Amino acid sequence: MGPLPRTVELFYDVLSPYSWLGFEILCRYKNIWNVHLQLRPSLIAGIMKSSGNKPPALVPSKGKYLTNDIKLLGQHVQVPIRIPKDFFSVILEKGSLSAMRFLTAVNMEHPEMLEKVSRELWMRVWSRAAEKAGMSTEGARALLEKISTPQVKNQLKETTEAACKYGAFGLPVTVAHLDGQTQMLFGSDRMELLAYLLGEKWMGPVPSAVSARL
Amino acid sequence: MGPLPRTVELFYDVLSPYSWLGFEILCRYKNIWNVHLQLRPSLIAGIMKSSGNKPPALVPSKGKYLTNDIKLLGQHVQVPIRIPKDFFSVILEKGSLSAMRFLTAVNMEHPEMLEKVSRELWMRVWSRDEDITEPGSILAAAEKAGMSTEGARALLEKISTPQVKNQLKETTEAACKYGAFGLPVTVAHLDGQTQMLFGSDRMELLAYLLGEKWMGPVPSAVSARL
């Protein structure tokens, strides 16, 4: 029997475009590297509040920079990211509380659906212009009803607090459980470093699963 | 004749550890990729002031994170970075004004020495926890890089002249015009467009934009040519 897979936790929020990039990269590598990927839906607003940090876009030159950065990374990572028309409104006003509570409920009752539903929510906010107010979810009424229950609210709170305990001040946060130590990495741009820490091969953000096995 | 090399500017400050990481990666790739690397000594304090940004370490959990991040990246990028004992004092109180003015003077009179002298200043502050603010400290770095004592002293005398002061100011303003809010900033001059990238962690993206191969932060020049 080979070595046990190492657990890699990904704390993310669908409000965070960089979370989407990190998510797609890890979803590709989870079947290539010897890892067990644990998706952890979190609330970036809670992390900002807890850490005293602020969304980067509040510094004007950072905001300008990251709209271009996200566009370029979208091309490189092959994720169809497009900045929503009303970028500030999306992030600062509309937020993601219901969406992340919904994903928390999905994770509690149908964890096998979590990856797909997370992706669909990102596609709504960060790929097609957010024309609809909020993020409705057709065909998931039962789960939708659960998002305001104490269990779901508390679970999202706990997951967000877990990220904060690891030292998060933003998202995405990747936590690698290595032999004898735990490493927290911030950002979608720490995946090559993650490979190095895991002793795995980095083949860029779009690895070919076929060539990995040759 | 092959295609013309593309110009890649690197704006950096020796006060910035991430600048050192970016600098070493680009120095390795400058002889592998078809690029012309232009080193641009800048003042990170000036960029922060201009952009209204603040050093990341002022958010406590960011400060804690980046000391570990720098350590891990140092291992991965194979740069002997070590956090100075009094980190805040080095960054927020002592600064790098004289050092960056000195590098500006080096760039104006002996540009072929700029890479080595820059590296020796980083080695002082970000590897051996040594001072870079005193004239003696800067001279020691210049000599270690291979400059003669006389040559280094002559340049040191020039750092308070208007020409050198203005040149550092202009270079820093150029970075700000490109949209910088911190360092390192890499500016790639591609066919028809200019792209500004922030951080030592955008080198793989730079390779993608240049149409060049990314072989990790420690490329083997030999294997690149096979």
Task: Give your account of this protein's structure.
The structure is a homodimer. With 214 residues, chain A is of the alpha+beta class. Chain A has a single domain (6-198), classed as Glutaredoxin, CATH 3.40.30. Chain A is 50% helix and 12% strand. Chain A has helices spanning 17-29, 44-51, 60-77, 87-94, 97-109, 114-126, 141-146, 150-165, 191-198, 209-213, and strands at residues 6-12, 35-41, 173-178, 181-186. Chain A has a four-stranded mixed sheet. Residues 129-136 of chain A have low confidence and may be disordered. The interface between A and B is medium-sized, with 31 and 32 residues. Chain B: GO terms for molecular function: glutathione peroxidase activity; glutathione transferase activity. Chain B: Its EC number is 2.5.1.18. Chain B: This is Glutathione S-transferase kappa.
On the 0 to 100 scale, the average pLDDT of chain A is 89
Residues in helix, % of chain A:
40-55%
Any idea how many domains of chain A? 1
Oligomeric form:
homodimer
Radius of gyration computed on alpha carbons of chain A: 17 Å
What is the highest CATH level, the class of chain A?
Answer: Alpha Beta
Shape of chain A: globular
Q: Give the strand order of the largest sheet of chain A, numbering strands 1, 2, ... along the chain.
A: 2-1-3-4
Query: Regions of chain A with pLDDT < 50 over 5+ consecutive residues?
Result: 129-136
Assigned CATH superfamily of chain A: Glutaredoxin
Could you state the order of secondary-structure elements of chain A as H and E? Answer: EHEHHHHHHHEEHH
CATH architecture level-2 label of chain A: 3-Layer(aba) Sandwich
Can you summarize the main beta sheet of chain A? 4 strands, mixed
CATH fold field value of chain A: Glutaredoxin
Q: Please report the number of helical segments of chain A.
A: 10
Distance linking N and C termini of chain A: 21 Å
| Extended strand count of chain A | 4
Strand content of chain A is 5-15%
Helix and strand composition category of chain A: alpha+beta
The largest inter-chain interface, given as chain pair and residues per side, is:
A-B, 31 and 32 residues
